[in-house]
């Protein structure tokens, strides 16, 4: 899931997910050739992504631009979750933001703990149940130090609940396009590796905590094999926004993206 989510009503969460529409394909047709021409990414394993059906692209997360790189290098439309305020702005700026994020396959949600986390998972489930491709970052948030953090089991819950195949994705060098604190993208060498599809159903069912943990660990091991990142051995924690969120996390633990 992309970084951030603020408070506001999000209409996208109601009803079934729809396939990417005209704006997506127009945006993809314009942005993809330009991005490939400027950044010349090295891409491997595109044939590992099924052309149809439910598929989760589970990737490491190094930069905000990861959510641009994956859709622009994948061989089929890819949707992902983004901060819902990108879609609710007013005026020309709001229209441009909404059009841009729609064009790259983003679906607006509120991200956070407790109920917000479950709603985000449900939004991802609806995307998959519409036989779409869905990109997710099992680490939850960007790795500031470049290490690969422990995966959260939301990715396994989605795969086991929907029957989607999981394609591990290894991104290398995207942090150099837009370093932390920088607002201006830079031209940098980027490698995108799409790994061998994983069928996590061998681990059990979605209602088994052990199955979700084993499936997530298998996915993260595959991502690590693609990137070679140093393993952090712990979660990449973003502290809850306030006391109520902390209490909700403890009393009502849920799967998280």
TrEMBL record:
The keyword Transmembrane helix applies. Residues 55-174 form the Phospholipid/glycerol acyltransferase domain. One of its GO terms (molecular function) is 1-acylglycerol-3-phosphate O-acyltransferase activity. It comes from the Bacteria. GO terms for cellular component: plasma membrane. Keywords: Acyltransferase, Membrane, Transferase, Transmembrane, Transmembrane helix. This is 1-acyl-sn-glycerol-3-phosphate acyltransferase. It comes from Cryobacterium tepidiphilum. The chain crosses the membrane at residues 21-39, 155-173. SMART domains: PlsC (SM00563). SUPFAM superfamilies: Glycerol-3-phosphate (1)-acyltransferase (SSF69593). Pfam families: Acyltransferase. One of its GO terms (biological process) is phosphatidic acid biosynthetic process.
